[in-house]
Design a protein that fits this description.
single chain, 191 residues, mainly alpha, 10 helices
């Protein structure tokens, strides 16, 4: 986890938080990949709306749980960045469970049959001709995320501190004043 977080040249606090997030989420990346594969199979069977709605459900669960677990809303404890990782993990499992149920529905199952291996050159070429551009598009999107994270990692902590302490931007509360004077920490809500 430290290796991947270290790519972004983060300060010590951001490095600790990023490492926590990666440690919580990374062991379950296979489950996320499996959810994507099942969704692709459902789309290949001709049902493009079910994976769309399940993806929307996953995002809604993720948003609600992120807020709840990061900030400690309702019955949940305040977990900070670790809560974001846990929320994403739960959302993926919810999506995977719904995706598996959808995959065994009769309306989906009648559109596919048991796998029999044989190479059909025209079909193989079609898969490759669609798969390569799709894979490249995914690589471009992920490269964009990587560049964004690298830029975020370059944000100077001292400049952030100066911006927080600038009265014209945030005003001055007792908490911000204590933080600016070096006598306190900001709550997660203000970070």
């Amino acid at each position: 986890a430290e290796f991947y977080a270290g790519i972004f040249d983060l300060d010590a606090v951001a490095m600790r938080e990023a490492t926590t997030f990666i440690r919580v989420l990374s062991p379950f990346i296979v489950t996320f990949g499996l959810a994507l594969a099942v969704g692709a199979a459902i789309r290949a069977a001709g049902d493009t709306l079910t994976p769309l709605w399940i993806g929307l459900l996953m995002n809604i669960v993720n948003i609600i749980l992120n807020y709840s677990l990061i900030f400690g809303a309702g019955p949940f404890p305040e977990m900070g960045v670790g809560g974001a990782g846990l929320a994403s993990l739960i959302a993926v499992y919810v999506g995977m469970a719904v995706m598996l149920v959808a995959a065994i529905l009769p309306s989906i199952r009648k559109k596919y049959r048991m796998f029999r291996f044989r190479v059909d050159k025209p079909v193989a070429w079609k898969v490759v001709s669609v798969g390569i551009p799709s894979g490249m598009a995914t690589m471009f999107v992920m490269t964009g995320f990587f560049i964004f994270m690298k830029v975020v990692g370059l944000v100077d902590a001292d400049r952030v501190h100066m911006a927080i302490c600038d009265e014209s931007i945030y005003g001055q509360t007792a908490e911000i004043s204590a933080y600016c004077e070096g006598n306190g920490e900001l709550s997660i809500a203000l970070q």
